[in-house]
Design a protein that fits this description.
homotetramer; 313 residues; alpha+beta; two-stranded antiparallel ribbon; 9 strands; flat
């Protein structure tokens, strides 16, 4: 994550600002504001604005005129109740805005979460930087042998080295050709006055999917939790999980009571189907149950045993 | 709009708060924050939080690291360009949250704007106050004779008096019966220990549609403009327009450059169909055009002439 | 639910139509199409159109060119997998459109589900019928003593009779005055040529919240499931649950494999928090656990014991 | 657009199906159903399902029980009225589902329209085909000199040839390396048993942005019109416009009255700001107006003169 001196100056200036406000503020999040929190090799997450706090969730749930005089632990109890019973609208009353720099193939996963506002840097209008994602050695994973959309162990030795070389060389070569086609003098590629230069909206198609892009992304707390539940999950692709985990930290700084309830009732929770519940009740009654007489498929049985921390067989 | 002493205290306490923030602030909107701006006979609009300002729109459009050093008139020019060319995402980067008290029949119009977050006071859970909307005499309008969903001139004399009496008496009587059915001692209706009391979620069905409700309503600036374009329009029902006009004032205080562009390119603008454009070109070329040879229907012709400020005939 | 002869003719004509199509059709749902399925005393649900079937969910999940040659039980397995793992987009590929007649206070609950398309009968433009909801005796419930938004046992004797009388009389009186204020000869109220008549958009405010309205409501299968999970649930208000249950039957006719997975993984399922999971594991290990040493609040403990079918104490 | 024999068989089988339905059908759209309508060099648009027709828009606007007996020209008049006055909900009552094959850099523009349902072919789960977009010579355009996000004239001679070579060679090379890294025997690249193969979710990052992807994309008619207004516009990038134009043809086959109103009131229409309207009125009154005394910026003045078909100077 190399920021230019101008970018660093802009960030420093924003952080130096001090304003008076009647709005609720969250000092722990103010401390993080505008900082570029590093993710992957060149990416980052920056919180650039926020609205609301834990109390705003409570206030909206009660449709109240002010912050009231209830004790903080009453607020915590209400927040836990709202989360446990799938209330969504009070959490929608908090809003956060991020500036994110991320590889394009991750941006394509991310954008599938539609209930958010996005402004992406336009490669139709501007020229992208020569920056692309290369996995760290421990992330250069083989295809999983038992999960069609998962990873196995990291590649080793010569294969690992060759894969990294290919990724790097192809990204550099396609970027060089992108700059040449543009013919605008970008990235130390001198412009040739004898050529016209290809339109930016076309030249970009030569870039590889690990090229970094960036966007402003704004969402409410309820939809952020939906995003984090899926993307901070162990089954998410590592590269997007890396972003989700940093964002989860910013949520903890921002709305600690909501964050705690989210960890308990969403991230650390498990949903049992009607059939699974039946098995749990039989087990609790002391009845021995095995997969064949459980009414569950082998796959469901395995998932249930893993959740209960019991041996699968 | 009668607020209780407790509510007034809550508002005063919120207004007295002073916090330090690194976020952009808008002093003109801070001055309005939390105040109950009166609308109709008992309603109000209160701005209870906001995120972003004019510069945030520009910042998102440019995906920049800070506020930059451009002159304010460059920002204004960009905002006008974005509005004129129907860019929506930069305006989505600003967010505002209102607390609104409004009659139920207006809430039902309002809620049709779906891209917003809402927490409404629950008559399933709580007891509504004895407050209902009664039109001022100049708003007690007859049905329009030429527009099936419009108003004519105000009713006069005995008819006006009788209508107002009916509205008032029916609202009071149905509320009295609501309180009696609840049997909870609400609104000075003593509870009878010999009765159980009807469930709140049922008793509420006896209230009339002019009863006041309230909600927290949060939306982004783009969707707020969509709301205001329709609801601050001369064709909107007066009662919702009264809310929209107060909200338009808060937008002016909040994002003056966006507000100016909105007035010019949306509220004060007119869209001409392909057929209407053809007529305008012929007129500008000095050709006399009348409705029968215009290719427009009578209704379209009338709408065009009104927009151009010309006699219809 | 009294339909006029014209309405019955319209429905019969629609049901009599036979068209050829290359689109997938679902005979069990075609059999229900356009019929007014009764709900409450005057309401109904009519399926007026649909798109897709069980196979369309599978087809979208696989992004395939046709229906393929897989066995039906493979499709069922994939649908169950998608539901269990919270995939939402394949279920969004099916769409259904209902025509619903319902009391206004229920319409106000319903409309909070925003991801749907709605066209409501306009009382600004047209005149509402004299039809209002009156609970059946077994639904005329007292306020719950232990749940602020729930119902207790039905009211009895004189109190029940008096409540029903008040609901009926107030609805009839306010409707009579509505018709009088309109002065359009509606509902056998003769128009008086000496009066102008109040604008429809104003007169409607005199109606009570149990007046029936109607709308076209269209949504995709994923969002319909979200609606049904909340509204067919035992904690939902009876009056909206009555609609949800009829709609659930239409879903069973339409997409039986999705319906089965929904019952198993949503309606009949339970989500255990991290803390609850810990208690279940300790119980399964044979450890006696009581609320005070469970780490759960009393309320959570009670909810957990109920889900597990164990005594609370 | 090369479809495999299996794909062609699947399409032929779907087209051969004949079902009876009570739902409205549109023969002109049935005739197109499932066909792969070619776009660009390897892309296509296929209509795979639809719901509703012109009459369904009218039916929803009137909340009626059937199709009624009104004349077709009354329906057309109502549709034009709804479009002219920005009514959106009746158009939301029609739904269409497409299967689209398109280059990734176009998919990234497209997905910014969020009010739609999408299932994309997963390169995390499956292997992409060796197919990439190469512009036809007349589309290999230079960067516009006066519009930062526009195109100028096509490149010529050696520059054109070299650009095409680079695009082709880079796409082929990065795809070859993608197949090599996968080591699954894809695209005639033999698998080496001595290597593990990189995870699919990682290998995909080496592909260029002109690689083709495909998805199911479903939306309602109102949101489809929003998409087409922006993407079938002359200012849209040619490659997405090519898709929009084919989709516009399918809309004409499907809902001809809505299509006609859309062309007249949206595609062929122009919106005049308050300031522009003032200029038009002065011109119509015979007053000579030039830019400096128009109150418009130079850019607005030029846009207005172009819309009015007058010389800019």
């Amino acid at each position: 994550m190399a920021l230019t001196p101008t970018q660093l100056d802009d960030i420093a200036a924003a952080r130096a600002a001090e304003h008076q406000t009647r709005r609720p503020t969250v000092p722990a999040l103010e401390a993080l504001l505008y900082q570029a929190l590093p993710v992957l090799d060149h990416g980052f997450v920056r919180v650039v604005d926020y609205m609301g706090d834990d109390a705003a969730v409570v206030q909206a749930a009660r449709v109240s005129y002010g912050r009231g005089t209830r004790a903080a632990n009453e607020d915590r109890g209400l927040i836990r109740y709202l989360m446990r019973h799938w209330h969504s609208t009070p959490f929608e009353m908090c809003e956060i805005k991020y500036h994110v720099k991320l590889p394009i193939f991750i941006a394509r996963q991310w954008i599938r979460h539609r209930t958010a506002n996005v402004n992406e840097y336009s490669a139709r209008y501007s020229i992208l930087d020569r920056e692309f994602y290369l996995p760290a050695p421990e992330q250069l994973a083989a295809q999983s042998s038992d999960n069609r959309q998962g990873r196995g162990a990291p590649l080793q030795g010569e294969e690992a080295a060759r894969v990294l070389d290919l990724l790097r060389q192809d990204a550099m070569q396609t970027y060089d050709h992108y700059a040449w086609m543009l013919n605008e003098g970008a990235a130390d590629t001198p412009a040739d006055p004898g050529r016209q230069g290809l339109a930016r909206e076309l030249a970009r198609m030569n870039l590889t999917l690990n090229t970094y892009t960036q966007w402003y992304w704004k969402t409410d707390l309820h939809n952020l939790f939906q995003f984090l539940r899926l993307r901070a999950d162990a089954h998410a692709q590592y590269e997007i999980r890396a972003y989700a985990e940093v964002m989860l930290d910013t949520v903890q700084a921002w709305v600690p009571a909501c964050h705690e309830a989210f960890l308990d009732y969403r991230m650390g929770a498990a949903t049992f189907s009607a059939g699974m519940l039946g098995v749990v009740r039989r087990l609790l009654a002391g009845e021995p149950v095995a997969q064949p007489d459980s009414g569950l498929s082998k796959r469901e049985w395995r998932e249930l045993m893993e959740t209960l921390g019991r041996p699968v067989a």
